[in-house]
UniProtKB/TrEMBL annotation:
Segments forming domain SDH C-terminal: 455-483
Species for this entry: Urochloa decumbens
Stretches assigned to the Quinate/shikimate 5-dehydrogenase/glutamyl-tRNA reductase domain: 344-394
Protein name: Shikimate dehydrogenase
SUPFAM superfamilies found in the cross-reference section: Aldolase, Aminoacid dehydrogenase-like, N-terminal domain, NAD(P)-binding Rossmann-fold domains
Superkingdom field: Eukaryota
Pfam family of the protein (one): SDH_C
CDD domains: DHQase_I, NAD_bind_Shikimate_DH
Length: 489
């Protein structure tokens, strides 16, 4: 079982003792005591206080500044402190590969049987090739490590795949983590690829490295205790992605029906590269959001007829034979929430416009790039406008304004595609943005007395379709989805 380790980075011994208790209460398996964070640290006075009353097994780390830590002193003092921790019965000690030989000579090979030695290497710039990573692991093993630790940095989400490849072939216990938001999946999927432990922080203010999720997220959203070698990997590939509530919604629903899968936020740069890299059947389905919905069409081997007609995809399923099939559940989600609409010319806008036309509506497409508006309008027999033209455009009776742009999305919540003055001419305003639930566009429309439809409705309804594609036809728990959406949006 992959252990859940909570790093303790408090500045005082008293606060660190309190955080150790909080880590145990939160469900951690062990704590990493980062001695280099403690101000005025006095080893012989403070170590007994930290270790003897610790409610969880402890890993002691005294990280120097040259390896990304806070300790500025000499190695001898640091080595003496780590040896003292061993004598006091600590469960794990972490030492850096660069000085591992020197440390082993310092302790003369005398290490208590109970204490496991973690030998670590950190790369804060990039993730090396598989060959270089494998050679690094071999070097760490050769110095006498009980546990190998390699932490690198993801410049692109595809970098994480190299760490996974090395982890599954490692012959000794290994901690393999990739830092930064793009490396999050390395932390969540550690149990799938045999990681000895992964780190979960108490809260966002208590991080020891970039990209660390909280204990709460790992246990209650990603359900890390239930992830294993056979767990399917699903996720939302987008850029940006952290604002999305899809991981919360899909994971809780997958858990509710007992489907063995985990759904991740996947911060990507290139959809084709991502799909080519993570080509294992276990990476079985993905949601696509900005800016990849149109790119997804050419990445798929087959397309649902509706998705092909729309020219945008928000759901990709990898069949057992490896073929990628594209679907569009935005279409159903949007049009079941509103009857007619006008909107942007991106992925969601294409779906709304297509669906509205199918329902017999007159469609007017407005876009910041006029050529995109013309292209979509021509495809569906609609009218094209520049986005600025909406200020003087006078809709006919019964028209609905549907915003399918990202204007107003968190964190840029002041954005809106149209002035408040122009909103009063519409019968209804729909906003595909659901974070925040009440956007500036919807708020100003309500102030004008116009009926509004929140993007939360589209979010729920498209998620129902996605869930059923992901699970091979299991009925989506709609009531649970609505409960989650009400709580988190």
């Amino acid at each position: 079982m992959t252990l859940l380790c909570v790093p303790l980075v408090a500045r005082t011994v008293e606060e660190m003792v309190a955080d150790a208790a909080a880590a145990a209460a939160a469900g951690g398996d062990l704590v990493e005591i980062r001695l280099d964070f403690i101000q005025g640290f006095r080893p012989r006075e403070h170590l007994p206080l930290l270790l003897r009353g610790c409610p969880l097994p402890a890993l002691v780390t005294y990280r120097p500044s040259w390896e990304g830590g806070q300790y500025e002193g000499d190695d001898t003092t640091r080595f003496e402190t780590l040896r003292l921790a061993m004598e006091l019965g600590v469960d794990y000690v972490d030492i850096e590969l660069k000085v591992a030989d020197k440390f082993m000579s310092f302790i003369s090979g005398n290490k208590p049987e109970k204490c496991k030695l973690i030998v670590s290497s950190h790369n804060y710039e990039y993730t090396p090739s598989c060959e270089d990573l494998a050679n690094l692991v071999a070097r760490i093993q050769a110095v006498g490590a009980d546990i190998v630790k390699v932490a690198t940095t993801a410049k692109d989400i595809v970098d994480v795949s190299r760490m996974f490849q090395v982890m599954v072939h490692c012959q000794v216990p290994m901690i393999g983590l990739v830092m930064s938001e793009k490396g999050l999946m390395s932390r969540v999927l550690a149990p799938k690829f045999g990681g000895y432990l992964t780190f979960g922080i108490l809260n966002a203010a208590k991080t020891s490295a970039s990209g660390q999720p909280t204990v709460e997220e790992l246990l209650n959203i990603y359900h890390i205790r239930h992830i294993g070698p056979d767990t399917k990997v699903l996720g939302l590939i987008a850029n940006p992605v952290k604002q999305s509530k899809s991981p919360i919604l899909h994971n809780k629903c997958l858990q509710s029906v007992g489907y063995n899968a985990v759904y991740l936020p996947l911060l990507g740069d290139n959809l084709a590269s991502f799909l080519e890299t993570y080509s294992s059947p276990d990476f079985s389905g993905f949601s696509c959001s900005l800016p990849f919905k149109v790119d997804a069409v050419k990445c798929c081997d087959e397309h649902d007829p509706v998705a092909k007609s729309i020219g945008a995809i928000n759901t990709i399923i990898r069949r057992p034979d490896g073929k990628l099939v594209g679907y569009n559940t935005d279409y159903i989600g949007a049009i079941s929430a509103i009857e007619d609409g006008i909107g942007g010319a991106g992925g969601a806008g294409k779906a709304i416009a297509y669906g509205a036309k199918e329902k017999g509506a007159r469609v007017v497409v407005a876009n910041r790039t006029y050529e995109k508006a013309v292209s979509l309008a021509n495809a569906i027999g609609g009218q094209a406008l520049r986005l600025a033209d909406l200020e003087t455009f006078r809709p006919e009776e019964g028209m609905i304004l549907a915003n399918a742009t990202s204007l107003g999305m968190y964190p840029n919540t002041d954005g809106t595609p149209i002035s408040k003055k122009a909103l009063s001419f519409y019968d209804m305003v729909f906003d595909a943005v659901y974070a925040p639930k009440v956007t500036r566009l919807l708020r100003e429309a309500e102030e004008c007395g116009v009926k509004v439809v929140s993007g939360v409705e589209m979010f729920i309804r498209q998620a129902i379709g996605q869930f059923e594609h992901f699970t091979g036809g299991i009925e989506a728990p709609e009531s649970l989805m609505r409960e989650i959406a009400a709580k988190y949006t």
